[in-house]
Design goal:
Number of helices: 13
CATH architecture of one domain: 3-Layer(bba) Sandwich
CATH topology of one domain: FAD/NAD(P)-binding domain
Shape: globular
Oligomer: single chain
CATH superfamily of one domain: FAD/NAD(P)-binding domain
Strand content: 25-35%
Structural class: alpha/beta
Helix content: 25-40%
């Protein structure tokens, strides 16, 4: 367990409440930038249950930047196929394959459970010389113009501690204590259906690396392959007959699962099981003065599409570099307002997106059941012969489509007809680098901005970055090539890439004080 040092009793830069995936990602990102922080959690350690299952391509790109993607690939599962059974008959056998080929270094569906994400991030945090204060909960807090003062309860030593921080990040989940103390509205709805989840070992004839889904008239269930052979995450909704029942055991719902999927199977072991209600809710603002809400503390929704954990990771990724700039004096506090500006629209879109999928798969009306029974097989047949549609779906589920194009931090000055714009994720391009074909993402790993110059001069454009900005920007010179031409780049182009690998500025020229003027936006 971590300890609060005398220095931390006097204060720290950031206090993070909650050491789930979102909190640990925020801590790891801040540690990359050298920011002083404290992270607390009432738990004894990382989450033992698997919980969230899927890691999106966009999250994998964060892990790639951190040097951790190979570990995720080694410890996770690559999902190759999707089968849909209706009334005991296989209606869909769909190859997921590398649906995102040409879009990312991670063109497939990756299963890597929440417990694995937490362990990986915690290990990385400790390598950075930081630790989590386990067995520690927040009991009260107070904000001022200078910072946040929190009262913490050490659950082991039975003592209270007071810590002062400049900012606070609430990553303490759907029942967030911070959100309640801030009196933030958390409006939305609760789904009528009861939802179950279990980690099991199953004996059946299904091939490995396959997701099996089965919607019926009254409920829905799905099976996701996990880290070990024959180990599956089973999840779904329960029929109406369970709505008013309490203390439901797995043995109670096992016959429901069997009848829903309609194929022979035997549950050999149940490692974890839970039943709960699903909610769809979002705060009105991701920031309240010096406190920021991230992950489930800010927004919750159905698990449709495997978006929840990934969205929390992206929240932390977006906020951390902005806090670093403010704390180092290279940006004013107005920069922190863009956290809400950039992340809130995505959260609102996500709530609608997951609600539609969940509603379609679980609605008990005859009309929707018939759509699932007859329309789903047809749609997947169309998908199987249309790589373009498959890529569009992959872009949505992987979160690589999202752009901060409307952000005040996104500035474009180019006269070229480009296929991308400021605010977009940096384009996925593979280049010849020292005799090896790699994506540009392998070059965007420093904990700073990157100025990518396409069509570099023979002198290397060394003077393109003003001396005052050298500590903030790493210059990358790349020669022009056909891959850039496909993106509409016909002459020299400068792309200023933010620390989260989204494009801050695009310009044909660096003269006229353009870089300095861009960074003055942060003041």
């Amino acid at each position: 367990m971590g300890t609060i040092t005398a220095n931390h009793q006097l204060g720290t830069d950031i206090i993070i409440v909650g050491a789930g995936p979102t909190g640990l990602m925020a801590a790891c990102q801040l540690a990359r930038f050298g920011v002083d922080l404290i992270i607390i959690d009432a738990k004894a350690g990382t989450t033992p249950e698997s919980r969230a299952m899927l890691v999106s391509a966009r999250s994998m790109e964060i892990y790639q930047q951190m040097g951790l993607s190979d570990k995720v690939l080694a410890q996770g599962e690559y999902i190759r196929n999707l089968s849909i059974y209706i009334d005991g008959k296989e209606k869909v056998d769909f190859s997921l394959g590398k649906a995102g080929a040409g879009l990312t270094d991670f063109p497939y569906i990756q299963s890597f459970e929440q417990s694995g994400n937490e362990s990986l991030l915690y290990e990385q945090l400790r390598k950075k010389g930081r630790d989590v204060l386990w067995h520690t909960e927040l009991v009260d807090m107070e904000q001022s113009a200078e910072g946040v003062t929190v009262k913490l309860q050490d659950l082991v030593a039975k003592r209270q501690l007071e810590v002062r921080a400049k900012y606070l990040i609430a990553c303490d989940g759907a029942s967030s204590t911070v959100r309640q103390l801030l009196k933030c509205k958390f409006e939305g709805k609760t789904y009528e259906n009861k939802f179950f989840v279990a980690d099991t070992r199953i004996d059946w004839a299904q091939p490995a690396h396959r997701v099996v889904a089965s919607p019926s008239r009254t409920n829905f269930c799905a099976f996701f392959p996990m880290y070990d052979k024959d180990t599956y995450r089973v999840l779904g909704t329960l029929p109406g007959s369970f709505y008013n029942k309490e203390n439901i055991a797995f043995q109670d719902i096992e016959p429901v699962i069997r009848s829903t999927v309609g194929i022979p199977l035997q549950f050999k072991v149940v490692n974890w099981f839970s039943v709960y209600k699903l909610h769809q809710r979002c705060v009105e603002s991701f920031a309240v003065n010096r406190c920021f809400l991230a992950g489930d503390a800010a927004h919750i929704h159905s698990p449709a599409g495997g978006q929840g954990m990934n969205t929390g990771l992206q929240d932390a990724y977006n906020l951390s570099w902005k806090l670093w700039m403010v704390l180092t004096g290279t940006a004013g506090e107005s920069l922190l307002c863009t956290y809400h500006t950039e992340r809130y629209p995505f959260a609102k879109w996500l709530l609608k997106f997951t609600d539609r999928i969940f509603g379609f798969m679980t609605d008990r009306q005859v009309f929707f059941y018939l759509l699932r029974k007859h329309l789903l097989p047809f749609l997947f047949k169309v998908l199987s012969i249309s790589p373009r549609i498959k890529k569009r779906i992959f872009r949505a589920l992987s979160q690589i489509w999202y752009s901060y194009g409307d952000s005040p931090l996104s500035v474009g000055h180019s006269e070229q007809s480009l296929t991308f714009k400021a605010g977009d994720r940096f384009p996925y391009v593979r280049i010849d680098h020292k005799g090896k074909m790699i994506s540009c993402y392998h070059l965007l790993t420093a904990a700073k901005f990157h100025l990518v110059c396409i069509g570099a001069d023979s002198n290397g454009n060394k003077d393109d970055v003003p001396a005052a900005l050298v500590p903030l920007i790493q210059l990358i010179n790349l020669p022009h090539s056909p891959c850039w031409l496909k993106l509409g780049i016909r002459k020299k182009l400068y792309i200023l890439v933010r620390p989260d690998n989204y494009i801050g500025m695009i310009t044909d020229r660096i003269d006229d004080d353009r870089l300095e003027r861009y960074f003055r936006l942060f003041r």
